[in-house]
Specification:
With 489 residues, this protein is of the alpha/beta class. It is 39% helix and 20% strand. The chain is globular and about 70 Å long. Bound molecules: nicotinamide-adenine-dinucleotide (NAD).
């Protein structure tokens, strides 16, 4: 494959059945644009329904092949380990591809490659150690539960952390014995293709990992609706997730949905305010706020509200917004110009309805950044939790700060959201922390920390934030169906 950043004219190919192919669909190629500069990185072939048919056919064959179905788990684990090793060998290349396509700063891209490699190593271990179960018998027989793959799994990923999401789906789906068709976001197709290349090099038999860059409405929808696809694992927006769940219901097909969020980040007056403010700023501004678990609603106990608002705003104003590969850059651009327009429109609507913009609320003035999709870290106050800006997911570096009076008021406000992905609590009182943690409607609660994530801990959303749990041991079972086996004695 050509090296990243070159303006090659030939679109990068699809990966179907172990071969890199231009595809049959004749659709206009995807244009990968560097959001830091507005320049074209490269073009990538866009898959259409014919390519989906081809990928499903080859994946079905590969999933059924005895060589894969009967492969002993230590051998399967060895391939996953090798994929992790090769990702580390090529980590600069992976990090650079992600940085060019979604504009995240270098340090974050590099950390995400390491984390994705660790995901492959983790599921290699799970694959080798997770057994079947002997269940209590109620008669003269032996009863067992064994776990079997679905066959062909479609993995559909977003642009904000492509490699992390891809590893989180592909490693357990392969460990569970499936074949996978990966449809990366149209904005960030390249890390997925690299992963496909590395999987082949690691010895994964052809056809078990196919990569189909393309749009959601064409390649994505065709995959979800294809009768040969037996399970879909999706990470993305709630509206897309709902459409996928509707299509899956028609096929009676299981889905795992990791969707959007509007996570409350809570600061009580007795908290270590310095540490809390550091985490609040990191929780919303890291990755330019394009994180499903971004702590986008800040709730501060009223007695320290003004003080914390000042501290967070000072931090936002001091944050180094720069080109993603500039040394010391803390925040890069939004991942696309369309995303910046969306964020700007939401902030302007809030301003027009009377919200106070305490920090940011504009593009940076730095001429070096003028060609990119940059937007300043923004803090909004003077609103309540029912305001549109406090209810809608922004997916940008925009924090809504609101006061609360007591625990009951806090819990009512924090849970008054369609979403329930994550949350954070800062307090010195561990009893209160645990009480509030249990009362929050969220799939993850952080206490006196934020955005710590372990591949060993199940992750997913309450309410409109999703269905099912990825990661951990259950993250492998997500890609298997249980079978009861009885042996008469
Ligand atoms: P998106 O829903 O627009 O797209 C996500 C992926 O789905 C892309 O690959 C897209 O092409 C595809 N897609 C879109 N419509 C489809 C359809 N009808 N059928 C099949 N595929 C379809 O989301 P996005 O804008 O790429 O990502 C941002 C969203 O993802 C945010 O809402 C964010 O919160 C969410 N997200 C959630 C998590 C999580 O783990 N919960 C993680 C990251 C991002």
């Amino acid at each position: 494959m050509p090296s990243p950043g070159t303006h090659d004219e030939t679109p990068r190919p699809l990966l179907i059945g172990g071969e890199f192919l231009p595809g049959r669909s004749q659709l206009p190629p995807l244009e990968s644009i560097n959001p830091a500069t507005g320049q074209l990185n490269h073009r990538v072939a866009a898959a259409g329904p014919d390519d989906v048919d081809d990928a499903v056919a080859t994946a079905t064959e590969a999933a059924r092949a005895k060589a894969w179905r009967h492969m002993l788990s230590p051998q399967r684990a060895a391939i996953l380990h090798r994929i992790g090793e090769l990702m580390l060998r090529d980590s600069d290349r992976f990090a650079r591809l992600q940085m060019l396509e979604n504009g995240k700063v270098w340090a974050e891209c590099a950390a995400q490659v390491k984390s994705a490699a660790a995901t492959f190593r983790y599921y290699a271990s799970v694959c080798e150690t997770l057994g079947s179960e002997l269940t209590p018998s109620r008669g003269h027989y032996l009863s067992m539960t064994v776990h079997e793959p679905y066959g062909v799994v479609a993995a559909i990923t977003p642009w904000n952390s492509p490699l992390t999401m891809e590893a989180q789906k592909i490693a357990p789906a392969l460990a569970a014995g499936n074949a996978v068709i990966l449809k990366p976001s149209e904005i960030t197709p390249s890390t997925a293709l690299e992963l496909g290349r590395i999987a082949l090099e690691a010895g994964l038999p052809p056809g078990l990992l196919n990569v189909l860059p393309g749009t959601g409405t064409t390649a994505g929808a065709a995959l979800v609706e294809h009768p040969g696809v037996k399970m879909v694992s999706f990470t993305g927006g709630t509206a897309s997730g709902r459409r996928i769940a509707e299509a899956a219901a028609r096929k009676l097909m299981p889905v795992a949905l990791e969707l959007g969020g509007k996570s409350p980040h809570i600061v009580f007056a007795d908290a270590d305010l310095e540490a809390a403010v550091d985490a609040v700023a990191g929780g919303i501004f890291e990755g330019s706020g394009q994180s499903c678990v971004a702590g986008s609603r800040l709730f501060v106990q009223r007695s320290v509200f003004d003080q914390v608002l000042q501290m967070v705003s000072d931090k936002a104003n001091r944050l180094r917004v720069d080109l993603p590969d500039a040394s010391g850059a803390e925040m890069g651009p939004l991942a696309s110009f369309a995303q910046r327009e969306r964020v700007e429109a939401m902030v302007e609507a809030a301003r027009a309805s009377g919200a106070g913009i305490v920090a940011g609320g504009a593009r940076p003035h730095d001429a070096r950044l003028a060609a990119g999709a940059f937007y300043l870290p923004t803090v909004i106050a003077g609103i309540d939790n029912r305001a549109t800006i406090a209810q809608q997911e922004i997916f940008g570096p925009v924090l809504c700060a609101m006061p609360f009076d007591d625990e009951d008021d806090l819990i009512a406000q924090a849970n008054d959201s369609a979403y329930g992905l994550a949350s954070g609590i800062w307090t010195a009182d561990y009893r209160r922390a645990l009480r509030v943690a249990r009362a929050l409607e969220a799939g993850t609660v952080w206490i006196n920390t934020y955005k710590q994530l372990s591949i060993a801990t199940p992750f997913g959303g309450f309410k409109d934030s999703g269905l099912g749990r990825e990661k951990g041991l259950s993250g492998l079972r997500l890609y298997q169906q249980a079978k009861g086996l009885y042996l008469g004695l």
